């Protein structure tokens, strides 16, 4: 798609600069697979991650965070109460919180957990296409586990419906990252396909969304699109040095850390889809 100069590059730069300047504390209740990449992604962007998930600590700790990130990737019955308690407290305190509904359609337990979390008013929900379709239809279905069996564009209507029904900003990752508030829909066109070959890149971009929303909670739609673009650009720049997924993982962290204004202004590619 032809890239037009627009206001998105400066917006993305303003968000990344604010994260670097403020270093917002982000509480992450995330899956075992993703913990390392999520923490390193947040640190390389300038945010301050803390992987605290025990229910006993939530009343003391969650009130001090700038945003909460909840990811159900390795969900078990004893983690769900922590996720719900932290989400409920964040909502009560007016703090942004972001949900990653990993493999939402894989089982009834997982789907119900995600639906209960959605009831607690996440600011943003980011999933791959299959996850957003399962959540929007509230149905368990044939799924490839944590990977998507749909293209992001197939989930545009599901995303819009979920955003309308939940009041959250909904983002669908893929070749085109879709962001909607139920009315506006934009597509972020950065990134490279090899990002799918590194586990937890999706989890990490959701965490980055939490950091961007933390510094601009009143503009969660813009913060979400900006985070997806910045991460995609880090992937593009990293790809020029990578030999495969393992080195891309390393170069992406370096490129996010070094991302400058010129690169964001020239590469950010967000277009209206509605
Ligand atoms: N075909 C593609 N082209 C460009 N970028 C892509 C493509 N597919 C995914 N991405 C990017 O890769 C990142 C991860 O997206 P993906 O849809 O794979 O998440 P996910 O399935 O939730 O991953 P995980 O569960 O492993 O964390 C996003 O930043 C997305 O923009
Ligand atoms: C592979 C995997 N399994 C559960 S969570 C996770 C990380 C990517 O979502
Ligand atoms: Mg995922």
Automatic annotation (TrEMBL):
UniProt entry keywords in alphabetical sequence: ATP-binding, Kinase, Magnesium, Metal-binding, Nucleotide-binding, Thiamine biosynthesis, Transferase
One GO biological process term: thiamine salvage
Family: Belongs to the Thz kinase family.
Cofactor(s) listed in the protein's UniProt record: Mg(2+)
Function: Thiazole kinase involved in thiamine salvage pathway.
NCBIfam families given in the database record: PRK09355.1
UniProt-listed Enzyme Commission number(s): 2.7.1.50
Reactions mediated catalytically: 5-(2-hydroxyethyl)-4-methylthiazole + ATP = 4-methyl-5-(2-phosphooxyethyl)-thiazole + ADP + H(+)
Protein name: Hydroxyethylthiazole kinase
Pathway(s) it belongs to: Cofactor biosynthesis; thiamine diphosphate biosynthesis; 4-methyl-5-(2-phosphoethyl)-thiazole from 5-(2-hydroxyethyl)-4-methylthiazole: step 1/1
A Pfam family the protein falls into: HK
UniProt keyword Metal-binding, yes or no: yes
Gene Ontology molecular-function annotations: ATP binding; hydroxyethylthiazole kinase activity; magnesium ion binding
Originating species: Citrus x changshan-huyou
């Amino acid at each position: 798609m032809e890239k037009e100069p627009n206001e998105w590059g400066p917006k993305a730069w303003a968000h990344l600069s604010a994260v670097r300047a403020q270093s917002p504390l982000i509480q992450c209740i995330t899956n075992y697979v993703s913990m390392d990449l999520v923490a390193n992604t947040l640190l390389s962007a300038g945010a301050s991650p803390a992987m605290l998930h025990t229910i006993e600590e939530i009343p003391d700790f969650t009130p001090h965070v700038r945003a909460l990130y909840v990811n159900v990737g390795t969900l078990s019955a004893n983690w769900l109460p922590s996720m719900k308690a932290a989400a409920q407290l964040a909502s009560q305190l007016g703090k942004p919180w972001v949900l990653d509904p990993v493999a939402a359609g894989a089982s009834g337990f997982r789907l119900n957990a995600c639906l209960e979390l959605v009831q607690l008013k996440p600011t943003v929900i980011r999933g791959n296409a299959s996850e957003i379709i399962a959540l929007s239809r509230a149905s368990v279905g044939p799924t490839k586990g944590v990977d998507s069996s749909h293209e992001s564009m197939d989930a545009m209507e599901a995303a819009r419906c979920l955003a309308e029904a939940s009041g959250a900003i909904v983002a669908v990752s893929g070749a085109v990252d879709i962001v909607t508030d139920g009315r506006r829909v934009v597509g972020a066109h950065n990134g490279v396909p090899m990002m799918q070959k590194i586990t937890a890149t999706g989890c990490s971009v959701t965490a980055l969304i939490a950091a961007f929303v933390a510094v601009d909670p009143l503009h969660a739609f813009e913060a979400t699109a900006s985070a997806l673009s910045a991460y995609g650009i880090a992937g593009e720049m990293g790809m020029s040095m990578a030999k495969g997924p393992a080195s891309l993982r390393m170069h992406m962290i370096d490129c996010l850390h070094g991302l400058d204004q010129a690169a964001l202004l020239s590469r950010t590619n967000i277009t209206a889809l509605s």
